[in-house]
Design brief:
Layout (H helix, E strand, L loop, with lengths): L1 H34 L3 H13 L1 H12 L4 H25 L4 E2 L2 H25 L1 E2 L1 H24 L6 H12 L6 H33 L3 H13 L1 H12 L3 H26 L2 E2 L4 H22 L1 E2 L1 H18 L1
Antiparallel strand pairs: 1-4, 2-3
Helix pairs in contact: 1-2, 1-7, 1-8, 1-10, 2-11, 3-4, 3-11, 4-9, 4-10, 4-11, 4-12, 4-13, 5-11, 5-12, 6-11, 8-9, 10-11, 12-13
Length: about 325
């Protein structure tokens, strides 16, 4: 009886994620077009931070409870999943290629890779992330927000007037909605995404325990993937709806947010112990970022074959974990 209940909850969680992603992408895309904000900026900020809410909640809650060590595993695991699984699936499941904005290839992706390596260096050099280093991550986070604000003012991320026309066309059918309704749709979508993620993780974890899987396996796979489900559903939904800048920006922005805000905030609360085993995980995360950058730099887009390569990369990492 308990197993049946957990499967029903798992199904309900997935339904919440699917509908939440639809509402969130539609609402945020239309708000962006109303204010003339580039889709890329929306993806790198509102969508990225919103879908990273589960990671932030888990890590900061753990730090407040004196168990900040979970933060490092959460950040590394989520960043690996975001690139290899989520962008891999997004590219693999999308009929057309997923275009990548020029500024993302030139600035945000290299910045994401550098921040991963900096966090690795901080932890490896001192066996912990100190409060001072947490403050440093927060300073860089504020500078990053300032950079995004400048991007928004300059209208960066739109390659041409044709792109603007496409954005306006996508919003044409929704012009009758008031701004209050759009904000409500976006907020409701985010709430469904976060709640659906929580329900899905809890149900999947319960099922895994009933089956007899180990706590370590559950933590490294089900829980890590569960907190990344908002990014998965939002990115796939955005790509299928033609909002590719939101799909790619969501992942790149989420990874940067995880490192600078989530790890930085947790370290400010209490120093984070950096266990040596996490060195490999962060190197894998950085390597995944480099692979994504190479694919994006070579063709200015992600195609189905490259999505398959990313998925195979996670399969190799999963085998290593086993």
């Amino acid at each position: 009886m308990e197993t049946v209940l957990q499967f029903l909850l798992l199904s309900a969680g997935f339904m919440m994620l699917i509908k939440g992603a639809d509402f969130f992408v539609d609402g945020s895309s239309e708000i962006a077009s109303r204010f003339g904000i580039p889709q890329l900026v929306v993806g790198l900020t509102i969508v990225a931070m919103g879908t990273s809410a589960p990671e932030a909640a888990v890590s900061i809650s753990a730090a407040l409870k004196g168990n900040a060590g979970i933060t490092i595993g959460n950040v590394a695991g989520s960043n690996i999943l975001n690139i290899l699984i989520i962008l891999g699936l997004t590219a693999f499941l999308t009929k057309k290629t997923v275009p990548v904005a020029a500024s993302t290839v030139k600035y945000e992706m290299p910045f994401m890779i550098v921040t991963m390596l900096v966090l690795l260096w901080m932890g490896y050099a001192g066996n912990e992330i100190t409060r001072l280093e947490g403050a440093g991550l927060w300073v860089v986070f504020l500078l990053y927000l300032f950079y995004l604000l400048k991007m928004a003012k300059k209208g960066a991320g739109r390659n041409s007037e044709e792109d603007e026309g496409e954005v306006s066309e996508r919003g044409a059918n929704k012009k009758e909605k008031s701004m209050a309704m759009l904000v409500l749709f976006t907020s409701a979508g985010l709430a469904l995404i976060v709640a659906g993620s929580s329900v899905t993780v809890d149900a999947a974890t319960a099922i895994a325990r009933i089956i007899g899987l180990s706590e370590r396996f559950i933590g490294l796979t089900i829980v890590a993937l569960g907190t990344s489900l908002p990014e998965l559903f939002t990115s796939v939904s955005a790509a299928r709806k033609g909002s590719a800048d939101i799909a790619i920006g969501n992942i790149v922005g989420s990874n940067i947010f995880n490192i600078l805000f989530v790890a930085g905030t947790s370290a400010l609360i209490t120093p984070i112990v950096f266990e040596s085993k996490f060195t490999v995980d962060f190197l894998v995360a950085a390597a995944a970022g480099v692979l994504l950058w190479i694919f994006s730099f070579s063709g200015k887009s992600l195609n189905r074959a490259e999505g398959g390569v990313l998925l195979l990369g996670y399969l190799g990492y999963f085998i290593y974990l086993l």
